[in-house]
Amino acid sequence: MLSLSSYHFVGLDNYKKFFTSPSLGKVFRSTLIYVVLGVFLTYVIGLGAALILNMKLRMKPLFRAILILPWAIPQVVLVLIWKWMLNPQYGCINYLFSSLHLIPMNFSWFSDPKFAIIAIMLVTIWKQYPLSCLILFAGMKTISGELYETASIDGASAFRRFFYITLPGLKYVNSVLVLLLTIWSFTNFVIIWLLTMGGPSDQTATLSIFTYLNAFKFSKLGYGVSIGVVCLMVSLIFSFFYYRVFITDVNND
Asked: For residue 83, which phi and psi values (nearest 5 degrees)?
């Protein structure tokens, strides 16, 4: 890494090696699950929290502060807190679930790939949903109250007001928010690395984790850079098509 005389050009061999790697399917599957589930659940929970904030509640400032608190906590601190709560021996979540006979005693969330991804999603969603909540709440404030009053007079239920007024009014906000959440989830590194380091057996290794593992842990810098380029290209292609299909369509409306 420090001497220019110690390297040799290998052309596209690193890309060929990556696309023929036995870990390729696991990495892309983990990335897809993490991004799709993370974005969907973050949006749904954020939307629910935003609807609650938009109601006339007592002590709304306190409730708002509690909802956005996870976003203010640094990622490293947040992960360490969750890792403590999920500890097999003294974690409070494990104690609660084992008391309800939902999981066995001394259950390890990070030993089984299925439960490891669940634990990662819990931490990720808890970190991300305040951002979704605040953006959607701000979007709801731009919708005219007269529309809701008119719909109520016409006898529209809360369910119909939500689907025919609130969601269409959030169309532009939704398009930008989903793009931001997707890019953030696709490039997220800290939460997954501190929880599982991509294990067990690369089952939770997303593209960003796999890039780091090969470049710095296994000292395959050229191979890691190639994976990073693939990660960048996937992100750019997705952003381009998403912008052309969704955001441009919203602007035309």
From this structure: -65, -35
The DSSP code for 59 is: T
- Which residues have C-beta within 8 Å of that of residue 203, sequence separation ≥ 6? 26, 30, 113, 116, 117
Contact status, residue 25 vs residue 205, Cβ threshold 8 Å: no
Contact 23, 210 (CB under 8 A): yes
- Residues sharing a CB contact under 8 Å with residue 64, sequence separation 6 or more, in sequence order: 53
Q: In this predicted model, what pLDDT tens digit does every residue of 215-237 receive, in sequence order?
A: 888 888 889 989 999 988 988 88
Are 2 and 149 in contact by the 8 Å Cβ rule? The answer is no
CA–CA separation, 20 vs 30, rounded Å? Answer: 17
Q: With a threshold of 0.85, does the pTM exceed it?
A: yes
Provide the pLDDT confidence category of residue 135 given band limits of 50, 70 and 90: very high
Q: Please, where are the H alpha helices in the chain?
A: 13-19, 24-53, 60-72, 75-85, 92-99, 113-141, 145-153, 158-161, 167-169, 171-187, 190-195, 207-212, 221-242, 248-252
Q: Using CA atoms, how far apart are residues 43 and 130, in angstroms rounded to an integer?
A: 10
Count other C-beta atoms under 10 Å from residue 181's C-beta. 22
SS3 20: coil
Structure tokens at 231: 């990660």
